[in-house]
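The authors assume throughout that readers already know how a fold can be written as C-alpha cells. For illustration, here is how one protein appears when written out as sequence plus C-alpha cells:
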Amino acid sequence: MRRRIAVPVLMLLMGGMPGMLAAMMEHGTLELPSGRLALLREGSGPVIVLLPSLGRGQEDFDDLAPRLAAAGFRVLRPEPRGIGGSAPLPPGATLHDMAADVAAAIEAEGGGPAIVVGHAAGNWVARVLSHDRPDLVRAVALLAAVTGTEVDPEIRRSITASFTLTLSDEERLSHLRRAYFAPGNDASVWLPGWHPEVSMAQRAAAAATKDKAWLRAAERHPLLYVAAAEDAIAAPPSLEDLQATLGPRVTRVVVERAGHALVPEQPAAVAEALVSFARGVP
C-alpha cells in the first residue's frame, strides 16, 4: 500500500491552537541504572513515542507533538542521552542500551504497547526496541530513514559540516539546505540544535551493535515508512524495496516539498500520515 500526501492538511487536528497545547506539556525525569532520563509528555490516549535523529533533541518535534496530542494520543518524548537533562551515554553502550531507555519510558506510562516513531537515525532505536521488547511495541513508523542506499560524498560532507559549529552560520546554512531541506523551505530553523558529542556517542553505539537480527525485527509489527519527496540523503524507496528490506507489513507515504529534515518542513503532513496510520492499527 502506498499513499502520497500533498502538503495542505491538519488544522482540524490542531484546532488552530498549538501554543495552548504546548502549554500542557509535562516535563519529568526517570532515574534509571544508566542515569537520569529526561522525558516530555503531553496528551492522553494511545501512546506514541517520538525519537529524533542523530545528534538532535526532542525540540525537533515541538510542532509535531501537539498535533498528535490534539488528535487523541499520549505523546512521549524521551530526550536522547546527553541532551536536555538526560545523562550521557556511557562508554560501550549499544543501540540496545538506547532502546532500553525507550522501553523504560513506555513502562513508566503503564507498559504500552506504543507506536514508536524514529526520525532518520532514530529509526535504529525504534527497530531495535521492536526486536528487544515486542511486548511494548504496537507498531513502528520510520520518518526519512536510510534503509541501505549509498549517500553521495558531497552530501556526506554537508552532514559533517552541519555538526561543525565553528563554521559561520552562512556556511552551515548552505550545507543544511543541500543535505536536509527541500528548495524553498527555511533551513535556518536547524542552525541550532546540533550536539556533536551526542552524535559521536550514538555512532559509537551503532558501531558497537554487532548483531543484525534487529534489522528486520520491525516486520513483526505494522510498519509505516514516511518518505520525503526531495530527500537528498534517503531518496524515497519503492514499496517493493521497502518490503524486501523491512518486511511485507510495511506501507509507504510520500510527503511532498520536504527533504531529509521532513518534520520541521512539513509537520502537518507528517502528523496526518502518523494519525491515519495509528488509527488503522489494531
Observations:
- The beta strands are 2-5, 26-32, 35-42, 47-51, 74-78, 114-119, 137-143, 223-228, 250-255.
